[in-house]
Amino acid sequence: MRPDSTESQASAANVVFAEREIPIFRVGDVVRVAERSPVGHYRVPTYLRGKTGVVEAVIEPPGVDNEDESFGRNAGIKLHYYRVSFPMTRLWENYKDSPSDALHIEVFETGLLKEKP
Amino acid sequence: MNNEAAAHDGDHSHSHAPVQQEEHPTYYEIMEIAVRELLVDKKLLGPGEIRRQIEVLDSRTPALGAKVVARAWVDPAFKARLLENGRKSCEEFGISFYDDTQLIVLENTEKIHNVIVCTLCSCYPRVLLGLPPDWYKLKPYRARTVSEPRAVLAEFGTVIPDDVEVRVSDSTAMVRYLVLPRRPPGTEALTEDELAALVTRDAMIGVITVNGPDEKEAP
Known about the structure:
- The complex is a heterodimer.
- By secondary structure, chain A is an alpha+beta fold.
- Chain A has helices at 5-10, 66-70, 88-91, and strands spanning 30-33, 52-64, 78-87, 102-108, 112-114.
- Chain B is mainly alpha-helical.
- Chain B folds into two domains: 18-58, no CATH class; 62-205, Nitrile Hydratase, Chain A (Alpha-Beta Complex).
- Residues 1-7 of chain B have low confidence and may be disordered.
């Protein structure tokens, strides 16, 4: 897990990273899970559609998109997965237990949108 | 050939039920056979490769995960590395990862209780624990663990105090999770092997805690 990609950039000044190599979200970013249509079996569970959470970690190394891969459409493009956390009370209206309970999940970069703070 | 085997081969006087297939294969069993035979026919996979992968899977059991947990309990430096990069430290420990998955080890503490689930299918740390239990793959566990985790845990006999945060990790893509349970009190004198013997599969999924050697399991 790499908490902040800019540090690794700075440590080798003469190396230029390709755009896709650099995670677009950072730890602490507020993100929204993309609402994709039609509703179907994506690698992000339906119960998280449109929910906002906080990036907890950038998962290294980057990986291929599982959804593309399952259709044989892997062109070798790798992006990051992010571990994102959501308070249970934000996911379930009637969540009666402790408000500190939370759900954590890893989501591929293309499944997340940046939310304005 | 020993006498017993010889007797079995030659004089078949004792009776036993014949070993045979009683039921017709299901739709999915037929599909699996058809796909497997096609893959072999088209030379995309050899029967030896399929057998080898089955042997790889058969060699993975919860005893492996238990060894990792016991090592983390007795070796703080290993534990720190394990929490930092689960896959790398398991590989250092001699446990190979035969696929592209990463491993995040989730530490249970006085204030945090972790439990793992895969709502989409049955993602599971097979590298360390082998095949998942059937209930892990069934819809009630998958749906309820993300929406009412405390109720699910209570059904396993695990009642989490209100001031302890329940963290549910939903494993959906390339990351697998392993719960590092809390070391039970009164185990200071135990060896690493004795500690490993206390660690069960369900404790590493996070649905129960680890009992000390003298504790009885919750009824």
